[in-house]
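ok, trying the design again with the full structure, not the truncated one.
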């Protein structure tokens, strides 16, 4: 999970002016390295903070947890940890998640995230939205930053993480003390 804020240059427009053709939106796992390199360079020049909650799925009891329940727990732990540092009582909070699955799944996830926001934030004025990743440059930046953090934690590859290290405000390992893997 990640959180980014700020007003970076529109990455897709900057790359288009550099002659990098994209057939669709950015997605770090699918993009060619030349695209990744350029996106990370643009990300380095953007002003934002990123907060990550590391949530190792194999340490959860899958048989007791629906997919929606697992994501709700992850959102809860992320916002419980990050919200006090970034959200004040008079702030407005817009939580935007990349659109996933069917309308029914999005509706269930929206209700779950709304419940989490109610429990974890102090502000009275907030909203939850699901947008296609390609419609919002910040969701694409979040994808890239999350990919870099994931590579660091899963395979020890810090190449991309080192490029965004200055943007990372927090990395909270939810299962830091857990050693039991359920699958």
């Amino acid at each position: 999970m990640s959180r980014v804020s700020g007003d970076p240059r529109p990455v897709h427009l900057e790359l288009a002016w550099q002659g990098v053709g994209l057939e669709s939106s950015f997605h770090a796992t699918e993009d060619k390295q030349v695209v990744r390199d350029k996106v990370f360079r643009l990300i380095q020049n953007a002003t934002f903070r990123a907060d990550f909650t590391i949530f190792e799925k194999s340490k959860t009891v899958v048989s007791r947890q629906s997919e929606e329940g697992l994501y709700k727990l992850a959102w809860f732990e992320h916002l419980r940890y990050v919200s006090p540092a970034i959200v004040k009582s008079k702030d407005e909070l817009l939580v935007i998640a990349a659109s996933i699955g069917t309308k029914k799944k999005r509706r269930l996830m929206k209700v779950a995230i709304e419940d989490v926001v109610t429990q974890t934030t102090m502000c009275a004025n907030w909203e939850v939205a699901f947008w296609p990743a390609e419609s919002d440059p910040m969701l694409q930046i979040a994808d890239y930053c999350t990919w870099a953090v994931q590579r660091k934690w899963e395979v020890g590859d810090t190449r991309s993480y080192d490029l965004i290290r200055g943007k990372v405000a927090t990395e909270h390992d939810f299962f830091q003390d857990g050693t039991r893997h359920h699958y």
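Keeping the full-length input from now on. The chain has six helices and five strands.
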